[in-house]
What we know:
Layout (H helix, E strand, L loop, with lengths): L5 E4 L3 H12 L4 E4 L11 E4 L2 E4 L12 H9 L6 E3 L2 E6 L2 E4 L4 H5 L6 H19 L9 H4 L6 H15 L8 H7 L9 H9 L20 H9 L9 H4 L7 E3 L3 H11 L4 E4 L6 E5 L2 E6 L3 E3 L2 E4 L6 H4 L5 H7 L6 E9 L10 E5 L5 E4 L14 E9 L5 H15 L7 E9 L22 E3 L10 H18 L6
Parallel strand pairs: 1-2, 1-13, 2-9, 6-15, 13-19
Antiparallel strand pairs: 3-4, 5-8, 6-7, 10-11, 11-12, 14-17, 14-18, 15-16, 16-17
Bound molecules: flavin-adenine dinucleotide.
Flavin-adenine dinucleotide binds next to helix 1, strand 14 and helix 15.
Amino acid sequence: MNDYDVIVVGAGISGLLSALALSKHGNKVLVLEKSKFVGGNCNSYMVDGFQVDTGAHAITHLQVGPLRRLMDNYFDYAPVFEDYGNYYVRTENNFQKVPSNIKEFVTFDILPRKDRILITQAITKALTLSTFGTDLSKQSVYEFMQGNLSKDTYAFIDTICHFLSGKDMKQTSAQRILAGSSFVRDSVPEEQLETIIKENEKIAVETLPRTILPPNMHASLQTRLNRVSNPFTSLGRLATNKVAYSQGYPRKGLKGLLNAVLFSLPNTVEIKTGCEVKKILTDKGRVTGVQADEVYNAAKVIYTGFVTELPSMIETLPESYVQELKGVVHTKSLTVWTGLDSVMKEFNYIGSEIWFKDAPYWAMPISNYDASLAPKGKQLVGFSFIIDSEKSEEQQINKAYETIYNAVPAIEDHIEMKHNQITVPEKAAVTIDGYFADVRTPIKGLYAAGTDTDRRSMGITRAAYSIVELLKKMNEDGCLYK
Ligand SMILES: Cc1cc2nc3c(=O)[nH]c(=O)nc-3n(C[C@H](O)[C@H](O)[C@H](O)COP(=O)(O)OP(=O)(O)OC[C@H]3O[C@@H](n4cnc5c(N)ncnc54)[C@H](O)[C@@H]3O)c2cc1C
């Protein structure tokens, strides 16, 4: 039986980022993953010659966000991000850029002019309140949308809410929209991370000298990021905001990001796949290890599965904590990947599109970023839908295909590969009342990390925020370093 300094449960991006950071602080780490593969929701695989991702992804806040800080401080191999491009909206007879600032709203004639004015006023009000310190995380988007808006406008706002929080506009907070549309930006200043991890530092973390990076690295995005100096004030963004600001798609797909983490892991990290953790072991309120295919001992355990499953893994959790975890809200998504026999003119753009009528989707022609994701001359497009876990999956899949054929009728004759994925995109949805657990649990030495432990941002950026928070709490508890 081997003993470790830290056991990480789960080898998704959160588990691997924690393993990377903790190992670079001198810890001997064991990662246990129940599935046969590492990566969780951050991965790519081949289907009939096409390389699909686990869901259509845009990686956000790459300039000063938490992932950037973790990459700068812990990665030996930096992933390359392609410029994300633009967000578009498709209707039966229109295809337009989604407005990301007030100026662009003026010409966005997919919605009636009267509604555009009301939306503009609502955004201005929300941003003004937020800039002057009002917390909008408990106020719904619906509350800000007073007035008689058309059915289409409500459907459009609802769609944006669904893709940002997984829920409708009555359950999505105004803060979520401001952050998701880049009016307010996520950031972890370098000095902040330094204070988080360097207070009790014993072992220096080597930062990557920029000079060793090949000159063409991140050619498209990195050059522009380097040029960005002082960000504009929040209110200034009403006129100049750019949604795609510092967003990117990893070259070679999501596995490009995953591989950068894996290749950066020192050999003090051991990973076991096909190894489900069934119990987390404790003694007198302290964690002592885990029970998987055998017992593994460690005084520190990082759990990155669903926090809602913790009560079934530990008998001694306080009842109040168990009750709080019941407040976590989950959503499900369906991604339909279509492999096309040729490059279609309808998908001749870089970025993504939304369809907001009936069954809304968010679609990305990912082979436009990297032609090697599809066989030569072919195209790969992913369509993500939010689905209702109470309703039949089969019916919702059929409805999804119906919607795609309705939105882009020509596609039906070009599909040569179909692949459906049903997943839970994030372990907690950011709704007004939805609960998020703390990274510190009531058990000493046991920490939770991942998208149900931090309500900031979304997806991989949120996972990275939770790791920054984990490092902070572990340092405060005096156990970040070995
Ligand atoms: C359709 C879709 C679209 C998305 N779009 C975006 C996007 O545009 N931008 C973005 O940033 N993010 C996006 N995401 C979200 C992003 O992929 C996830 O938030 C992120 O990958 C979650 O990482 P995680 O490590 O926290 O969780 P997971 O990926 O769920 O990893 C948890 C891992 O723990 C393992 N595990 C759980 N329990 C146990 C146990 N008891 N024992 C051992 N192993 C265990 C699981 O098998 C899994 O591998 C999207 C996701 C989906 C599905």
